[in-house]
Amino acid sequence: MKKVKYLILGAxxxxxxxxxxxxxxxxxxxxxLEKEAQAGGLCRSALVDGSPFDMGGxxxxxxxxxxxxEFLFSFLPRKEWKLFQRDSRIFIKGKxxxxxxxxxxxxxxxxxxxxxxxxxARAGCNREDPVPEKFVDWIRWKLGEKIAEDYMLxxxxxxxxxxxxxxxxYWLEKLPDVSFEQTLxxxxxxRACGTQPGHxxxxxxxxxxxxxxxxxxxxxxGERIRYNTAAQSLDCEERMVxxxxxxxxxxxxxxxxIPWREFRRISGMPAELIASIQKLRASAVETRYRRQRLDxxxxxxxxxxEEIPYHRILVxxxxxxxxxxxWTETRQERTCLFERQHETGDEKNGFDSGDNIFLNPYAxxxxxxxxxxIMKELLDYCAGxxxxxxxxxxxxxxxxxxxxxxxxxxxxxxxxx
Length: 417
Prior knowledge:
Blueprint: E1 2-9, H1 13-24, E2 30-33, E3 45-48, E4 51-54, E5 61-62, H2 66-73, E6 81-85, E7 88-92, E8 95-98, H3 110-121, H4 135-143, H5 145-160, H6 180-189, E9 201-205, H7 212-219, E10 225-226, E11 231-235, E12 240-243, E13 248-256, E14 265-267, H8 271-277, E15 282-290, E16 300-302, E17 312-314, E18 326-331, H9 336-343, E19 357-365, H10 371-383, E20 387-389, H11 391-394, H12 401-416
Parallel strand pairs: 1-2, 1-13, 2-10, 7-16, 11-14, 13-20
Antiparallel strand pairs: 3-4, 5-9, 6-9, 7-8, 11-12, 12-13, 15-18, 15-19, 16-17, 17-18
Helix pairs in contact: 1-12, 3-6, 4-5
């Protein structure tokens, strides 16, 4: 049996950051296990049609966390990144409208503007109605009936599944209230008013895909990272992992960044807690490269139309210099629509049987009913055993990469103390 002080499962942003924090602190007894042949997790990149393609979809480095940025710049220097101002759009009702929708309804014709304004004025949050408990009702209460039905509900069905009421509302508080006054002001002045969306300013590598920074981090770990090695079982009492190669590795501390359902066997944990892990849900997403060049200044476009399979477009030539084409993101259950369109000769959505396709079986953790209680009990129990869940999958929370890096830095500092 191999023994290390720290065993890290997964070489995505969370695992790599935690490993480098250990290394920075002088720790040498640690090992990173990665199931794939390459580091980066959902942030991996591949060379497609002569330019980088981010296999896990659109990932960018937000500017909001200077500490995180400076940490990552130590691997991929600042001069190798380019700063962008976000330009995102929504393709709705046959036209491209600025995002977020509520601050850009002035881009519709007058009748549509009046209809949206009336709906916002009647929204439950603006009338001080009680807060609903069900997801669909909450969206209508927060945004008004028209924005809910035209955009938010169909988009979320495409992203997360048809039964939206299987989702909780506990994660929606980050959505700002839709102000009637701000919306009216934007219509009168023909400019966006109100809260800026996330990633209003972001960095992206000048010559590479987003996966380059994680490759460089992994490259500096040498023999302390092992590829093509999947953790298959977890023994909480012994703090031991068995791999798909049959090796047993014990550790003083285990940090897991992989989906909890990926463990085929967990021992040393109450049976009811093991059973609750099976209730955790995630969506699988296909990313597909298209060769056509889109005539738009937007870097990404949201597509709520349920007749179109994909939910988001990443226009890579608008953030990845010297590239062409674009890629789409589609929930796995909806990809059959691509095939049907191809079989019937309907090419309106750019389907090409020669397109490059990547499937991410774990793309988005679903914020289902009861998930916070499951994760609190699971993480608390495991922390008591010296096992820590970290990042998007270790904590089963939809974190962006900059948030994940910050969480990993904080955990390493906390454990060092």
